[in-house]
Amino acid sequence: MKNSILELTEKIKEKSRPTRTAYLKRVKAMQNRVRGADRLGCANVAHAFASLPVDKRLTIIEEKKPNIAVVTAYNDMLSAHKPYETYPDLIRSVAHQNGATVQVAAGVPAMCDGVTQGEPGMELSLFSRDTIAMSTSVGLSHDVFDGSLLLGICDKIVPGLLIGALHFGHLPSIFIPAGPMATGIDNTSKSKVREQYALGKVGRKELLDSESKAYHGEGTCTFYGTANSNQMLLEAMGLHVPGAAFIHPKDDARDILTSEAVTLLINNIKDKKSYALGEMVDEKVIINAMAALLATGGSTNHLIHWVAIARAAGIIIDWTDFHYLAKDVPLLASVYPNGIADVNQFQGAGGPSFVIRELLDNGCMFDDVLTVYGQGMEKYGQKLSVIEKKISWSKFPKNSGDDSIIRTHDNPFSSTGGLKLLKGNVGRSVMKTSAIPEEKHIIEGPAMIFDSQEELLEAFDEGKLEKDFIAVVRFQGPKANGMPELHKLTPPLSVLQNKGFKVAIVTDGRMSGASGKVPAAIHMSPEAALGGAIAKIKEGDMIRINAIVGSLNVLVDEDTWYERKIETLSESKKHSNAHDMGRELFGALRKNVLTAEEGAVTWI
């Protein structure tokens, strides 16, 4: 390991010591209890197993064989989660062959950000993560399980499942992916049609036709957004069957890999070595996930989600830790929106496993961690093969299958990771530099102030944005309105950029994991609704963003800036996002949420 990464890990351990020690103490206390079926009252046990066949009740109670909880995000609206419909039957079959039983303990909500983009429902999106965590906990709270299988893929679902499972960290747990959809229209062509629509050059029919060719079947969307970044990070944490992330849902290998996960979990439950999830997800494993994110230019949403995940395990990280780690982790992948390849091409060139091998070889990832497949990350850095229903792993050749998509650590796309911390008199924010050409890493321009994304879109339609400017889109943070993604701003800003105007965005909101092209300083903390300095910026103020040195400042003298008042959102606008589409039900979460840099956590 690189010394600087070892030092960073020790710093994280030190600042996490009180919370991590307390967490592990709780995990150990839960581990040391008598099994649920033997500990609970007879009426409790009878209720828990009433729906099982008599022989399966005996398996749990008399033979004391493992009983596995399945927590599933299945619904048949989300393309990524539709494949999970048949998984419980397969899981039961494999478990029964291995002398274990299975119960679907919970179905958790799973919303699609692609459907809700730019709509009021998107204001529920970020908070759905903690709702999923709570739903996972409700299912596992029946407390009759020896381990859990977690079925989820997309944006908030994986973080929510993992946070929930870590609150039951005494249980061994494994994630089961379902894979990406087949490649449709290429992402570059899709983006061009969106820009043409923004310009009025094509109509709704042409746009819908293009989008339907991009999103056309079962599986995750094929760009490297939040959902597919989730899968990369789970591989890096050793929580999948090695190499399982990006196999197509209809590939014959899928059932075999799912069966392997079931068998593996049963073996881990029986193993005398502790495979408790809460013990496995330690500081080194969190560093491995962070390194994988940086090395692949993954979704900026994970600068929020993985902070929350770490916190669920008693580990304290922030954006400064990402900043220092990025200095040592090279950018090894170029996948849309950072390049033109989709995740299927990424997988074909070597995929997560090739990246993990390179990070291990370059001292950027810890090998001495416990994974669901045993001690060490070796298999996670090897090529998966499934031949005649048998799984094997083999070493990759020196170079990837396509070095325009994946490169070795000695020939990276960049010597540093694809994300940057920006600091200055406005606060702290982050930028996805891997998606932006180097000539746009420094940009200066006058501010245009918007209190919603709708205001910016209206200004574009009215032709008011045909100039150099930096859009300041505020009151979009967790406390203001649940921090919706502002992905719909990308096409119009891209159009302006393509016309030669210098444009950028500064916001306390999120951009989609699929966003790129336009320089975007996002997740500004503290947010406007908390009195953050982003609410001091006035129309016409010159703003300078420098992603090379990591700074973002409003160019006014210090005294003037200090004495400026914080602008507040009008009462009418405050209340406009408090109702309809179920938003009133999330009022308590908006009230109690922590900052984006603290993971936008609602449960502390």
The computed structural class is alpha/beta
Q: Which radius of gyration do the C-alpha atoms yield?
A: 24 Å
Roughly what fraction of the amino acids lie in strands? Answer: 5-15%
Number of domains: 2
The parts where pLDDT drops under 50 for at least 5 residues are none
On the 0 to 100 scale, the average pLDDT is 94
The tally of helices reads 24
Question: Could you please describe the fold and organization of this structure?
Answer:
The chain is of the alpha/beta class and 604 residues long. It has 2 domains: 3-33 and 67-182 and 217-394, no CATH class; 420-598, 3-Layer(bba) Sandwich (Glucose Oxidase, domain 1). Helices cover 39% and strands 13% of the residues. The chain contains 24 helices and 16 strands. It has helices at residues 3-31, 36-39, 42-49, 54-61, 87-97, 113-116, 125-140, 157-166, 187-199, 204-214, 226-236, 253-270, 277-280, 283-296, 302-312, 319-326, 343-348, 351-361, 453-461, 478-481, 490-498, 558-563, 571-576, 587-592, and strands at residues 67-72, 101-107, 147-151, 173-176, 370-371, 374-375, 383-387, 390-394, 420-424, 427-431, 442-450, 469-473, 503-507, 520-525, 542-546, 551-554. Strands 9-10-14-13-12-11-15-16 form an 8-stranded mixed sheet. Strands 2-1-3-4 form a 4-stranded parallel sheet, sandwiched between helices. Strand 15 and strand 16 (551-554) form a beta hairpin. Helix 5 (87-97) crosses helix 12 (253-270). The longest helix has 29 residues, at 3-31.
